[in-house]
Structures are given as structure tokens and as C-alpha cells.
Specification:
single chain, 256 residues, mainly beta, 12-stranded antiparallel sheet, 4 helices
Length: 256
Amino acid sequence: MNKIYTTKLEENGISIKAETKLLFGQCGPDKRLHFTELMQYCADYLMELYTLRGQNRDYLSEKGYAQMVSRSSFHINKLPKENDEIIITVREEKPEGVQLMRYYDFKDAESGELLVSGKSLWVIVNPESRAVVMPANFEFLAQSSSQTPAECAKPSRIKIPEELKNLGEQKILYSMIDGNGHLTNAKYINFAIDFLPDEYQKKTFTDFRINFCKEIRKGDIMQVRAYFDDQSNKILVEGKIASSGERSFECELVYR
């Protein structure tokens, strides 16, 4: 008999806990969960948290609200692998200034071992004007005072050096675009990983931070450059929009 996996609200609706099993297509050559899939889980279960509270994405849009992630940070103890059963927790935290803080963790369903922890900052905007809505003016703001400790670095600005190596470029295609009309946030990390030289792709990454600077849309070209700090075991990656020269994302990868 197939196991039934559950998704439920907890802590008076400020968190969601979901059980799931990792499938072949979510994992890479090492059979470990792709970073893009990890980030997709975080974004999807955040929206599911609102859906279970009766405030799905369409409902929020009708009310004049959209949620956009601005900065994310994750610490990896051990990436789960194909066929692993895991429990994912997404929790709304106490806001920080104009942004909403969210916490994530991924645990082994059998042992309870913490596999991945992370935090991200989100802004509430008007979906038409993109004007920022202050948390105090967001009528669906979760009344959370949680400030959960996490092993990841705090989501913050990433300083990118001027001397960068050109890694390549990629046109943004239809399948990369989400319901907001631009590159879906979980796919930005692919540009930071896919263009790395082979020897760096095979590294064991322990941490990554990614900041979203400017939306990129279908038909534009992402130009990817990086700085390799082998003494500190860090890679700093920048993605620029070819048509405007604006930075689309910045990323820091830490390996051992």
C-alpha cells in the first residue's frame, strides 16, 4: 500500500509541515537533491501556507498583493537523495524592516536529522505597480514573533568583486517563466551552478546565498560571470541582463 504524505498547518497557522519523498527527476548526477528543487520546495510551501489559510496567490493578487523573494541563505549539513523521505518546515518569522523573514528546514523523516536549514527575506508589492507594501499595511501579515536560530548565514548583501571571469550566457526561454511573467526564483541558482567549470560543480557545497536584484523576462539573455576564491573555498557569481546591463542576481557558494 502506498504511503499517504501529509501537509498541515502548525503553530496557529504561522508554519506548515510537509512530508514528501524525493523522486529521480529532482536529483542530480550524484543522486542528491538539486538546489533549484530545494528552493522550489521553499517557495511552493510558503504559498501553500497561505493557501491553507484561505489566501492563495490569486486571492492575494485580487487584493493588490504579490510576494517577491529578495534574499535567501541556506546551510547544508547533508543534501537528501533520491527516494529519501523528508519533512519540510516553512515558518513565518518576525518581519525585518520592510521585509518579511521566512525560515525553512529539511529533516530526515525517519531519524529527524537536520539536513538543510535556511532563511529568506520577502517583500510584499502591488502586482501592477511593483510598489512596496509595508508589513504593517499588509492585512494578511502573520502575527509571528518567531526568530528561529538557523545555521545559515543571515540573508544579506553579497559583495561581488570587479574582476570576474566570463562563464557564458543563456537566453531566457518559455519554460523558465512563472505565473508572474519572469524567471521563477528557484531557477536563478541554476545559472550559478550550470556555468561553473566541471571541477567546481563536483565540489561539496555547504552554504549558499542568493540575492535577487532585477527580474529577467522571456527573450532576454542572462550573462554569467564569477570570481573563484580558492583560499576561502568561495565562488561569487553575478548574473546580468544583457539588454540593460543591470545585475539580475548575485550568489555566494561555499564548499569544502
